C-alpha cells in the first residue's frame, strides 16, 4: 500500500504518518512538503524515506505538483489535512484526474481494494460510513492525532521541486490580520458568542481568560460578521477545531457549526441566560445566568482564591 501525503505544516509529518499507519498498518509513505512544511522537511525523518519539497502555498501549484507525483509514484491513496488551500488543491486534482474524494475523514481503512472511511456530522451526532474505490483522495482530520515518538535511524531523502507556474498570476499577497491566538495548543479556552452586546464588553472574557491562563476563542459571527476578533480566534466547521481540557462557552447558543469545533474538549462549561439553549445538551456543566451578572462574580471569586 502506497500513500502520498501532503504536509502543509511541519507538525503534519508526525500527525499524518501516525494517522495513516494507525489506519493502514505498515504503508509506504511518501511526502510532498509545501508551505511551512517545506521549511522543515527534516521533520519527516523516521516517518518517511523520501520527501518532495516545494516552497509554495498556491492551490493551483500544489495541484500541478500532485498531478506530476501521482503519475510518477502511482499512490493508492492521496491524503492531506483539511486546510483551506489543501482542500482547494486536492479538489482540483480529484476533479481533473477523475478520482473519488472523501472530505473531513476521521478514520479509514482499505478492504477488498476499496477505501472505507468514517466521518461525522452535526457535532458527531451523526456518523457516516462509506467506501470508494482506489486510488482515492482523502482529506483527513488529524488535529487530534498524537504523533508517535520516533528515533529516526536515517534522514529522509529530500527532493527539491520548483513550484510550477499555473495560469493564475498572483499580483499581491496580503496576510490576514491575526491576534496571536494559538487555540490548537491551548489547555483552557474561553469562548465568546453573541451573548456579548458590544466589542468593549469582551474585556470581561479577556479578564477571565487571564485569570485562568486561557486563550480566547469565538463563534463565527464574532470574527466573520462583527469583526470583534481576528479569524484565528474562530472555532467551528469553517474555523479551528480544538481539544482543550476545559472549554468555557460564554453567551454561545451552541449551533452545530460551532460545536463541531469543540467536540474533542474534555470538559465543556456553558453560561447562557436561555435555559433552552442547545449548548446545554452538550455541556458537562451548565450555568443558566446573565453573563453580565455571573462573569464579574466568577472573576471576583477567582481573584479572592488566588490572593489566598
From TrEMBL:
Name of a matching Pfam family: ETF_alpha
Protein name per UniProt: Electron transfer flavoprotein alpha-subunit
Gene Ontology MF terms: electron transfer activity; flavin adenine dinucleotide binding
Residue span, Electron transfer flavoprotein alpha subunit C-terminal domain: 182-263
Gene Ontology biological-process annotations: fatty acid beta-oxidation using acyl-CoA dehydrogenase
UniProt feature coiled coil, ranges: none
Keyword presence, Cell membrane: no
Annotated keywords: Flavoprotein, Transport
Amino acid at each position: 500500500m502506497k500513500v502520498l501525503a501532503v504536509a502543509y505544516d511541519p507538525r503534519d509529518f508526525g500527525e499524518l504518518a501516525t494517522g495513516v499507519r494507525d489506519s493502514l498498518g505498515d504503508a509506504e509513505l511518501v511526502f510532498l512538503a509545501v508551505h511551512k512544511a517545506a521549511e522543515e522537511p527534516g521533520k519527516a525523518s523516521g516517518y518517511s524515506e523520501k520527501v518532495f519539497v516545494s516552497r509554495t502555498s498556491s492551490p493551483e501549484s500544489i495541484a500541478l505538483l500532485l498531478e506530476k507525483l501521482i503519475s510518477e509514484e502511482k499512490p493508492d491513496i492521496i491524503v492531506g489535512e483539511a486546510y483551506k488551500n489543501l482542500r482547494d488543491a486536492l479538489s482540483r486534482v480529484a476533479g481533473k484526474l477523475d478520482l473519488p474524494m472523501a472530505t473531513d475523514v476521521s478514520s479509514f481503512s482499505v478492504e477488498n481494494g476499496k477505501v472505507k472511511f468514517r466521518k461525522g456530522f452535526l457535532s458527531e451526532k451523526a456518523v457516516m460510513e462509506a467506501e470508494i474505490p482506489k486510488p482515492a483522495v482523502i482529506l483527513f482530520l488529524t488535529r487530534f492525532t498524537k504523533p508517535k515518538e520516533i528515533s529516526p535511524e536515517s534522514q529522509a531523502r529530500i527532493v527539491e521541486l520548483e513550484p510550477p507556474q499555473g495560469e493564475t498570476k498572483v499580483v499581491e499577497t496580503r496576510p490576514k490580520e491575526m491576534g496571536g491566538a494559538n487555540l490548537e495548543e491551548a489547555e483552557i479556552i474561553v469562548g465568546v458568542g453573541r451573548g456579548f452586546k458590544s466589542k468593549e464588553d469582551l474585556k470581561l472574557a479577556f479578564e477571565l481568560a487571564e485569570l485562568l491562563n486561557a486563550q480566547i476563542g469565538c463563534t463565527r459571527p464574532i470574527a466573520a460578521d462583527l469583526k470583534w476578533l481576528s479569524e484565528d480566534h474562530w472555532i467551528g466547521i469553517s474555523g479551528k477545531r480544538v481539544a482543550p481540557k476545559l472549554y468555557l462557552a460564554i453567551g454561545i447558543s451552541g449551533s452545530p457549526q460551532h460545536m463541531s469545533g469543540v467536540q474533542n474538549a474534555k470538559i465543556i462549561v456553558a453560561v447562557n441566560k436561555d435555559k433552552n439553549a442547545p449548548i446545554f445538551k452538550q455541556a458537562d456543566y451548565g450555568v443558566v445566568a446573565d453573563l453580565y451578572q455571573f462573569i464579574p462574580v466568577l472573576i471576583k471569586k477567582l481573584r479572592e482564591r488566588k490572593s489566598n
